[in-house]
Amino acid sequence: MAADAGGRGPGIPRVLSIAGSDPSGGAGIQADLKSIAAMGGYGMCAITALTAQNTRGVTAVHTPPPEFLAAQLEAVGSDITVDAVKIGMLADTEVIRTVGEWLARTRPGVVVLDPVMVATSGDRLLAPDAEDALRCLLAQAHLVTPNLPELAALLGEPTAASWDKALDQGRRLSERTGAVVLVKGGHLEGAACPDALVDARVAGSGSVVELPGTRVDTRNTHGTGCSLSSALATVQARTGDWARSLAVVKEWLRGALEASDELEVGHGHGPVHHFHHARAAVPLAPGEFAESLWRDAEKVRAEIAALPFVSELSAGTLSPEDFAYYLAQDALYLNAYSRVLARASALAPSEAEQAFWAEGSRVCLEVEAELHRTWLAHHPAEASQRAMGPVTKAYTDHLLAVSASGSYAVLAAAVLPCYWIYAEVGAALSGRHAARADPGDHPYGAWIGTYADEAFAEATRRAVAFTDAAGRSGSGAERAAMREAFGASAVYEREFFDAPRRFA
Ligand SMILES: Nc1ncnc2c1ncn2[C@@H]1O[C@H](COP(=O)(O)OP(=O)(O)O)[C@@H](O)[C@H]1O
Ligand SMILES: Cc1ncc(COP(=O)(O)OP(=O)(O)O)c(N)n1
């Protein structure tokens, strides 16, 4: 291939992906088209193979006749100027031969070859007898982007166990092929996730340009190699400088990995969020974010409504021991919750929010004291038993951990279920109680009456509104963290109501 892959300047690069299809949209041509668009290019694709796969793995591969691939390449190439090509899954020898012939004829200015062999799931995407043909094709690329197992397989060696050994393998592959090799750190162990461009044609230390990176803690890495290589082809068509292109793309990919939780796609290794950097086309309406949190917790809320604790409390058949356990744990919980609300007040971005959470914190202590003065005074044994039960401990540890993380928005989401779910349970209980023919006889009637407190209902509405506003103005990554914190607290609410049955 030509020694250097030049850039065409500020126009919109027309980038052709020659790759396989992933119907789940995370890898293959689907990832390539998103990445090319995310980098400001115009994406096209010639499909080498169709896979049936999702975030858990590949279940089938169909490779159309090579003549059909040749027809796709001819259709694109005969009409459209191709500024850059990204090559991904090639399936078998015939496909490789077809692509090789087309490259030799058209000689595109930028060719990035991602030598896809085996998916992360362990499924083969290249026939074992096609590896030699793939080795030969590498010489027709400007940049080759193997992951560590692919790099080793291309050299016929074991996978490098250290970064230095990987760089050495990259240098030897570059020597053999004449292409620049991007050595990728995605498969390394540990917190570091570097990448390095290795060009054996350059003498001395300039032959390795390393970009350090830290590992994003996520399992959503499906299609990172596809996304990286197609994004690099796109940016390179504009800059003509691999090191500059890699710096831009690595930063973007990091953001895509960080925001990947927002997508909630699949149950295995999910895709990255290719458009994390683009602002939402339709901004969230007031209330919309909070409603989505509420909807996400629908199953847990239904489970709470169906708990024996709730129905027995409502019917008055709850054992006094279970009730006393609940009250004692509630008192302990409220004390910790008060501190967490005080932290929300300290982090709050406005005086209104600061005052709101501070007042919530004060009220918690007041309710805790009231519990001891009234209900727990009738259960001195429970009241004197000050140890936190396992659920109370886990719930308050979760809240304290979120409060230590320093994000006001995430903390607001974490404390919200205690308002919102409690208010929902209270409304159901007090509604049922008020409808009874003999509400006066109920052993827990006075307690249930406290649920109907209008001041608490109003505080809940304000807590919902503040959390919603924090979510709407936050980043995508922040909203994902808020969802996680809200969901975890909702589960702890369920466990808290169920704890008397398990631990009293
Ligand atoms: N958890 C992660 N955090 C940050 N970057 C990552 C992570 N996983 C992969 N990458 C980056 O994604 C790109 C693809 O890397 P890699 O996973 O090694 O390739 P492949 O997807 O082909 O197996 C590289 O730039 C690598 O540094
Ligand atoms: C159709 C298709 N092409 C390539 C891959 C491999 O994707 P890659 O980005 O190398 O990484 P994983 O998805 O395997 O993590 C694929 N799965 N499907």
TrEMBL record:
Pathway: Cofactor biosynthesis; thiamine diphosphate biosynthesis; 4-amino-2-methyl-5-diphosphomethylpyrimidine from 5-amino-1-(5-phospho-D-ribosyl)imidazole: step 3/3. It catalyses: 4-amino-2-methyl-5-(phosphooxymethyl)pyrimidine + ATP = 4-amino-2-methyl-5-(diphosphooxymethyl)pyrimidine + ADP; 4-amino-5-hydroxymethyl-2-methylpyrimidine + ATP = 4-amino-2-methyl-5-(phosphooxymethyl)pyrimidine + ADP + H(+). Residues 307-499 form the Thiaminase-2/PQQC domain. Keywords: Kinase, Thiamine biosynthesis, Transferase. It comes from the Bacteria. It holds the Pfam family Phos_pyr_kin. Residues 22-273 form the Pyridoxamine kinase/Phosphomethylpyrimidine kinase domain. GO terms for molecular function: hydroxymethylpyrimidine kinase activity; phosphomethylpyrimidine kinase activity. Its EC number is 2.7.1.49, 2.7.4.7. InterPro entries: Haem_Oase-like_multi-hlx, HMP/HMP-P_kinase_dom, PM/HMP-P_kinase-1, Ribokinase-like, Thiaminase-2/PQQC. Catalyzes the phosphorylation of hydroxymethylpyrimidine phosphate (HMP-P) to HMP-PP, and of HMP to HMP-P. NCBIfam families: HMP-P_kinase. PANTHER family: HYDROXYMETHYLPYRIMIDINE_PHOSPHOMETHYLPYRIMIDINE KINASE THI20-RELATED, PHOSPHOMETHYLPYRIMIDINE KINASE. This is Bifunctional hydroxymethylpyrimidine kinase/phosphomethylpyrimidine kinase. It comes from Sinomonas halotolerans. The gene is thiD.
